[in-house]
């Protein structure tokens, strides 16, 4: 925890507790760590409702922790459960419920008990899927999730030590039978752990691989940010331009990453386009791109000696109802805030050609703005049925007066989920904390 850093004077830390040895050991250790600093730990158990005994197990965990003076809350996964991919869905629901609870309670730090053996399994599974450097980093020790930091302080600690920790605290735990089930990839890897270790694929060696890959990824991301600082220009309407010369002259991996980061930001995506598509696009740029291309939900086209990167209008198909005073995320790219005096029944949707036509007719000065066609057509608009009310991302309401002015305001801020220049992948060094 000291290596991770970034805590308030009296830290309040939430921890996800399943009832297994790993999460209970982390809870007990965090309880001691926070108390020494005048803080507290809050244990959170997600009851997925997938086994008849899960509710009773959650209550048992609560009783164990209450006896130690540790606050405990149960979060329940309500609603229908998917018929396929249940483990993945359960993990996603667990993380969502934990993060939502922390955000709602103003808790800045959420600790999870992933350990060295989990990290090794993650690396093996990603290697089997053909992952590159980014995937072989495994899990990050620190990861921002909105207003909450996700912490994994045990990534260097083997599972066996966490079992011994529970024994040292005289703390019983619950064994989840699904952890060893051959129906799931992780269960099959655990069954083959001895054979893999005999061939040199031990958890320790795989965790070392993840650490070295993380160092390489961090260096690449720092280099990518420096390249973008030289080659890119981002605009508040949600588009960017790239100077092709530094993009092409940089090492190929940096050029590919710079392209990917730009496409992710402009397209509102959290995952990069596939490597093959990026490689073809960079080759076209190196050869002198003369026609528009689409990739990652974006249009890439030559424009005045640079590359235009804009959201593909047809891909921005989301429609988000927004009540007066409400805030919503539209198309993964824009945070739209509607002021309380606005009427009810408005919907955020793309301008498109029709919306731009209405906006330009209503506010003629917009025609003088140097906005490429895909930028303005993929811009968010506030609609009342088929009538455009506002085009907040291109500031229509703030550029008119008199009869043309709308009686209320709305704001649309370009807030991509992945900032183009970072943050770089965090690496815990053995002597200097997070680097």
Automatic annotation (TrEMBL):
It is found in: Cytoplasm. InterPro entries: Rossmann-like_a/b/a_fold, TilS/TtcA_N, tRNA_Ile_lys_synt, tRNA_Ile_lys_synt_N. Its EC number is 6.3.4.19. It is an enzyme of class 6 (ligase). The keyword Nucleotide-binding applies. The keyword Plastid does not apply. Ligates lysine onto the cytidine present at position 34 of the AUA codon-specific tRNA(Ile) that contains the anticodon CAU, in an ATP-dependent manner. Cytidine is converted to lysidine, thus changing the amino acid specificity of the tRNA from methionine to isoleucine. This is tRNA(Ile)-lysidine synthase. It comes from Azospirillum oleiclasticum.
